[in-house]
Amino acid sequence: MILSVTTRPHSQAESRIIDPDVARASTLPSRFYTESSLMALEKEKIFARTWQIVGHAAQVAKIGDYFTTQSADEPLVITRDTNGELRGFYNVCRHRAGPPAQGCGSRKLFRCLYHGWTYSLEGKLLNAPEMEGTADFRPADFALRPVRCEEWGGLIFVNLDDDAEPLTQALRELPQQAEKFGLEKMRLFARREYVMECDWKTYIDNFLEGYHLPSVHPSLNRELDYSRYSTELFERHSFQGSPIRGPENEATVDRRYAQSKGDLSAEYFWIFPNWMLNCYPDN
Ligand code: FES
Prior knowledge:
This protein is an alpha+beta fold. The protein has six helices and 16 strands. The chain has a four-stranded antiparallel β-sheet, with no helix packed on it. It has a four-stranded antiparallel β-sheet with strand order 13-14-15-16, with no helix packed on it. The chain has a three-stranded antiparallel β-sheet with strand order 3-12-11, with no helix packed on it. It is globular, with a radius of gyration of 23 Å. Residues 93, 95-98, 112, 114-117 line the site of FE2/S2 (inorganic) cluster (FES).
């Protein structure tokens, strides 16, 4: 595989050959983790062109429910329209860019707090105070700009690329592989945010190795059969997994899955570029 990157104006594209033989693996050069120009490039080339998870269907269960979010630094609002359809818009007023929606909740329409333009749940401009008599002003020209927004397994994703392939197509084999965990039946329990003081790839690099399991996660290591930990690569995602130990490990106390008969597994999916899905038998 050849990775080709141009980071500096007028510079030649820099190519790196990625050896498919993992025995010869090494990390990317350190500057790939530190240069701010690369981060800007990653936003444009990667994060603005891939499906990004932004929330859970429970946050927009009813007509008029909405929440605001961001993807690749773009402010967005996700809502359930009057026909019950999931919709996403740039949360940018077409007048002077004030946010039409604030926070989250439920509304019949969105009202920009700057000068009071109002929009329907379908994004149509409904009212623009004092614009009467303005030459050639047609409200139909000033609808909120839509963003691609789709749902899978109760999870909501956006893609800033209007030409992106549909979400379930982009996920390739994943829906079938994760089917046994019944994601669509799961409920939103809590949302937690952690700020990582590192480049996003550093965190992914950590996720993509089970090597640290015995040292960093001793209680999880009691549950998993580390000797059978495996990794499998697919076109758009990777799979890591391990059987959960059976009763032979009951001598060690405080096991969460002490009832396991050796028929359960923990499965970890990483979906390019930055989504990780950790599946255990009960969560
Ligand atoms: Fe929204 Fe003016 S910026 S009404």
